[in-house]
Amino acid sequence: MLQTRCIESLSSRRRARNMAKTPLPSSAFAAFYINLDRDVARRIRFEEELLDSSIHAERISAVDGRAVPDWLRSFYDDRMGPGEVGCSASHLSICKMIVARGLPFALVLEDDARIAQDCRTAIANAVRAAPRDWDVIRLIESSSRPVQELARVGGGRTLVRYLRVPRSTTGLVISQAGARKLLKPRLVKEPIDVEIRWPWQLDLNVYGIHPPPITQASGRELESTIVARSRPQKRNQLQRMIFNIRKMGLPVYLACCFTSGRRSRPAVDKRVHNGGALARLGRA
How far from 165 is each of 16, 136, 151, 158, CA to CA, in Å? Predict the structure, then answer.
């Protein structure tokens, strides 16, 4: 009973206070995609992907991790490889554009994304349904751990909050507030996907859409351009637990945790579910 009433444990007053008020254009929203100048074939393929998905996105030239912009030099040292630095710096450059242009939010894509036909609708519905303080809505990868379901966003998809955030930054929606948090002056010690997976470090409110409307393309011509990857390790179970309890509330957190041992596929109307076989990379 506790498991299926995870959301109901939130008071109606708290729910009303947190529901998003983000203004949403009726037909479009800002979108960017990251692409290396030399990857012309990937650019052509991805622009066809965008056209098929009815999404207009501005191309952003990916940052060379060996030559980051002057304003970002203090963010990095030599602990990450050039590919990881370039990926992180590219996302932060888009965050700077979100802030500078006063965008309420923007879709941020990498050029190996495969986009579902209903992606734009799912994004619009998720932004409307998300709590007011959302920072990032992930569109890529499900979690193998239980999640808190918040709202249906159409097409059999649901807006969720994670106990453990999955990997990948192939498809994200970043709010104005989230962009400002990601631009906080600091020494970046982990790749951008890890910074988002460890949200307590920047106090990020990270949500996602399940099943995700974006997948990562495969094939030799679409292999990752990040050759050397760091493997940041941290004993962060306690930080994650404290963060989740603070953000979700103890009753909701416990309800989510109580599903961790279940292997059966949950009904779609369950308020907390385990990703099970649908999850691919959320176990790390």
Answer: 25, 11, 18, 15
